[in-house]
Write a structure and sequence with these properties.
By secondary structure, this protein is of the alpha/beta class. The protein contains 10 helices and 21 strands. The protein has 3 domains: about 30 residues; about 210 residues, P-loop containing nucleotide triphosphate hydrolases (Rossmann fold); about 170 residues, Ribosomal Protein S5, domain 2. Strands 6-5-7-8-4-9-10-11-12 form a 9-stranded mixed sheet, sandwiched between helices. A 4-stranded mixed sheet has the order 13-14-16-15. It has a 3-stranded antiparallel sheet with strand order 2-1-3, with no helix packed on it.
Length: about 450
């Protein structure tokens, strides 16, 4: 009779899976071999073989798409028009929003203001703080005048306790500040870890969808500005908001990085004060510095942030190179690659000598100008700085610059020119072939086909 040698059978080795991309390996590694993420590889325990999942009861039967009720997905105003603009009209019941931003930028202040305005409309709100005590949040609410009867406050760091609060309060708006501070006793790891964040987010999102609760989650960011935790967190939520601003400035900008219910190119402007946060419905003047006398190296343009035209000033400074054969190229608020391209175009097609000059370019007021329509204003500002000839203070330049030196048309030119005329500008330089329908008669418009012509028209 055949016998089996003792110890000849080997125990099955556990498999390891990356929580970010699903990559599997037979042994544990600290860094995923597929997406290169650190700390995301863990034991893939409790997995069933493919095709073994049994059928289960459905939560609600499938119906023809024409019979699906849409009232539950209607957006409800948050009480903050600038926030509603970014969200595409308001907060959708049952939607889960993730707001990320650097420490101290004002995320908690903005969400506490939103919670107070939501509660003042007679809608119950639950604010769960995992970073501050209830007394600390109450003091900030008093300073902001954000105390409301329907605003409930809890300080919790346990996921089970958070869900219990939701069951007891039955809110229509839930705010969790922040998702990295909440932990679950049923999952290994510390709060803020990949496994914990994934478990907390899944539980909160599941509760929000089943109870139709609009939910706002605060998320921390890493050194490079991305949302901390597993990337799957951004896939699970409906909206990802980025709250940004310079600590030296009170201006704060809210952008939608992902939005299932509206556009992702709108921005909301806020002013962070000692008494709270205030909306800035007309932020154009914040990005333009008015000079009493013309100053060389400056030019104003009009950029589009979603459907909102914003005037912004581009500034340039050129000085003799001090580092030998390697002139410095520094940009703040502008795309450094596009500035380098414009410098090359000016050298080749306009004969502007910038090869041996240190070049510094910046936007005013902390504006981030990435739209190609800013190219022409950047070229005019650089040419003005090199020649020390100022650009007129009542002129705006709008257009995209190509490598051949041509000036290309841009979208929504009529809206841009109307905004410039409303602010008080009298002249504009635009690409040739642009449609000037609806342009105010008080605005003198010059069409140009190339950068050389635009520079001559601006500096003559």
């Amino acid at each position: 009779m055949a016998t089996t040698k003792a110890g000849s059978g080997k125990a099955a080795r556990p498999a390891y899976r990356c929580a970010e991309c699903g990559w599997t390996t037979s042994k544990w590694v600290g860094r995923c071999g597929e997406c290169q993420a650190w700390g995301t590889v863990d034991v893939a325990g409790g997995e069933r073989a493919a095709g073994r999942t049994a059928a289960a009861a459905v939560t609600r039967p499938a119906v023809p798409i024409g019979q699906v009720l849409t009232e539950e997905a209607r957006a409800v105003t948050s009480g903050i028009p600038e926030l509603d603009r970014v969200l595409g009209g308001g907060v959708v019941p049952g939607a889960v929003l993730l707001m990320a931003g650097e420490p101290g930028v004002g995320k908690s202040t903005l969400l506490l203001e939103a919670a107070a305005r939501w509660a003042r409309a007679g809608r119950r709100t639950l604010y769960v703080s995992g970073e501050e005590s209830a007394a600390q949040v109450r003091l900030r609410a008093e300073r902001m005048d954000a105390v409301a009867d329907e605003l409930y406050l809890a300080a919790e760091t346990d996921l089970g306790a958070l869900l219990t609060h939701v069951e007891q309060v039955q809110p229509s708006l839930l705010i969790v500040d922040s998702v990295q501070t909440i932990g679950s006793a049923d999952v290994d790891g510390v709060p803020g870890g990949v496994t914990q964040v994934r478990e907390v987010a899944a539980a909160v999102i599941g509760r929000a969808k089943t109870a139709n609760i609009a939910t706002l989650l605060v998320g921390h960011v890493t050194k490079d500005g991305s949302v901390a935790g597993p990337r799957v967190l951004e896939h699970l939520v409906d909206v990802v908001l980025q709250f940004e601003g310079d600590r030296a400035s009170r201006l704060r900008l809210l952008r939608a990085v992902k939005n299932r219910f509206g556009p992702v190119d709108e921005i909301g402007c806020f002013d962070l004060t000692s008494d709270g946060i205030v909306e800035v419905p007309d932020p154009t003047g914040l990005f333009v510095s008015r000079h009493e006398q013309p100053v060389a190296g400056t030019c104003v343009t009009v950029t589009m942030e979603g459907r909102r035209p914003l005037l912004a000033e581009v500034q340039a400074l050129t000085v003799a190179a001090t580092s030998g054969g390697n002139p410095r190229r520094t940009s703040s608020g502008l795309d450094g690659q596009r500035v380098a391209m414009i410098l090359a175009v000016l050298t080749k097609h306009v004969n502007v000598p910038v090869q041996q000059l240190d070049v510094y370019t910046a936007s005013v007021g902390g504006a981030r100008l990435v739209e190609p329509s800013v190219d022409l204003a950047t070229a005019v500002a650089l040419a003005s700085a090199v020649s020390d000839r100022p650009c007129p203070t009542d002129l705006v330049a709008i257009g995209e610059v190509g490598l051949a030196g041509e000036v290309r048309p841009v979208r929504e030119l009529g809206a841009r020119l109307r905004e410039a005329s409303r602010i008080g500008f009298k002249r504009a330089i635009v690409p040739a072939g642009s449609d000037l329908t609806g342009v105010p008669p008080s605005l003198t418009v010059a069409k140009v086909g190339d950068v050389a012509t635009a520079v001559r028209a601006a500096l003559s």
